[in-house]
Design brief:
The protein is of the alpha/beta class. The protein is built from 14 helices and 17 strands. The strands form four sheets. Strands 2-1-3-8-7-6 form a six-stranded mixed β-sheet, sandwiched between helices. Strands 14-13-15-16-17 form a five-stranded mixed β-sheet, sandwiched between helices. Helix 1 (26-35) runs parallel beside helix 5 (158-174), helix 2 crosses helix 3 and helix 9 (262-273) packs parallel to helix 14. It is globular, with a radius of gyration of 26 Å.
């Protein structure tokens, strides 16, 4: 706040977020959205369901930032105490609101249900605040000015939070820095490791600024976030220049721009070629198919997949020859090739993927250690295979295998003419 730059903090509420089963993802969405308007999130916190701890965190963060965004704890149950915490932090008493109660009752009526009386607790408001209607749920949010700072409180359900963020908060934030924005663009890279990519691009840092380049690596995929802050059109031109420079250096490693996954890239390429895909998986246990079907519209080109975990399944479902299994073993280049061809032929697809390996933690040998994975792609123009020993636990090896298989297909689709 002291240097004139607008800053923000995110506070996620909920004791469940302090364990290993639930993670705070709302702060990532908030950070991306605020960055578009030149507001930088400098702090993120998670606090359990304690009125005192929440109130203390809210007071402290408001003292340091122009904006504090709180998510979670606005429901009707006993552990939903964010309203009480906000009231305590601001030294105000909650008051019932007939208008907000009407919103909640209308929500239940539209669902054909009677509102439980416990839900009247969600209709209490902080004096001086602006209640925020929840079009996607029942728990209202709120915004309130506190001195020179703004406090925004949203439900923890991402679907509900995102709607309030876009509708209620971002128009306010946009007025803080009119015409100024931080433009970002993400290059998705496949089949690379972070250190190799760093070596290729590090000379560009001097030209564009290291602070404007972020590398996010995850088991076979890498996201290179290019960004620049300034007047909107000038910032966009600068990012265009950055993208061109990084693309020239990275070449075919760049799978796509502002896309979520290799699965999305592969499906779009297949759709453009009017071709189809089938999969055969062993060690990944259907992970490749799951990622493909996570993409809306995958059914246009993805015909289906076979999880052939046993040798018998490989033989009966994919037509893998018993002699191959006896001579080379299930984890081998030969079997990966046969699986890819079998998926393609049995399901009548243009392309087939085959993946087989030792995901561990047991089952490895000196010849075939844990982490050894073979993957293959069969297509109209031929058959291609790769292998690698991936390091990590079972989940990490499977993630590497998933992305390696999709990236091999992605590169073949790029290289092969229609």
């Amino acid at each position: 706040m002291s240097d004139g730059r607008k800053t923000a903090a995110c506070l996620a509420v909920g004791s469940e977020l302090l364990g290993e089963r639930r993670l705070d993802s709302n702060s990532l969405t908030i950070t991306r959205a605020l960055a578009r308007h030149g507001v930088v999130v400098e702090e993120k916190r998670v606090v359990g369901d304690s009125v005192g701890l929440m109130a203390a965190a809210i007071r402290e963060l408001l003292g340091r930032h122009d904006l504090v965004v709180v998510t979670g704890g606005l429901g009707p149950t006993a552990d939903d105490v964010t309203r009480e915490a906000v009231a305590l932090a601001l030294d105000r008493e909650l008051e019932p609101s007939a208008e907000v109660e009407g919103w909640i009752r209308d929500r239940y009526a539209r669902l054909g249900r009677r509102m439980p009386e416990i839900c009247t607790g969600m209709a209490r408001v902080v004096p001086g605040s602006r209640p925020l209607h929840n079009d996607r749920g029942s728990a209202p949010g709120l915004m309130v000015e506190v001195g020179e700072s703004l406090l925004a409180v949203f439900p923890g359900v991402p679907w509900e939070m995102e709607e309030m963020l876009e509708r209620d908060l971002l128009p306010v934030v946009a007025r803080w820095n009119p015409g100024v924005a931080r433009i970002s663009r993400t290059l998705l890279l496949g089949g690379v490791v972070e250190s190799d990519t760093e070596e290729k691009i590090r000379h560009l840092y001097e030209q564009f600024g290291r602070e404007n380049v972020t590398i996010l690596a995850h088991y076979g995929v890498l996201r290179l976030v290019l960004s620049f802050e300034g007047e909107s059109s000038a910032a966009t031109r600068r990012v265009d220049t950055m993208e061109a420079a990084f693309r020239e250096v990275l070449g075919d490693d760049v799978a796509g721009v502002d896309v979520d996954s290799l699965a999305e890239v592969v499906l779009e390429k297949l759709r453009g070629r009017q071709e189809t895909l089938a999969t055969a998986e062993s060690c990944t246990g259907g992970l490749v198919s799951a990622h493909l079907t996570d993409v809306p519209g995958a059914s246009d080109v993805f015909l289906g997949g076979v999880v052939s975990y046993s040798n018998e399944a490989k033989e009966t479902m994919l037509g893998v020859a018993p002699e191959l299994l006896l001579e080379h073993g299930a984890v081998s280049e030969e079997v990966a090739r046969a699986m890819a061809e079998g998926a393609r032929e049995r399901l009548g697809a243009d392309w087939g993927i085959g993946v087989t390996g030792v995901a561990g933690p047991s089952g490895g040998t000196e010849e075939k250690p844990v982490g050894l994975v073979h993957w293959a792609v069969a297509g109209p123009g031929g058959l291609w295979t790769k292998q690698r020993v991936f390091l990590g636990d079972r989940a990490i090896i499977r993630e590497w295998s998933l992305n390696a298989a999709l990236d091999l297909l992605r590169r073949r689709l790029t290289a092969d003419p229609l």
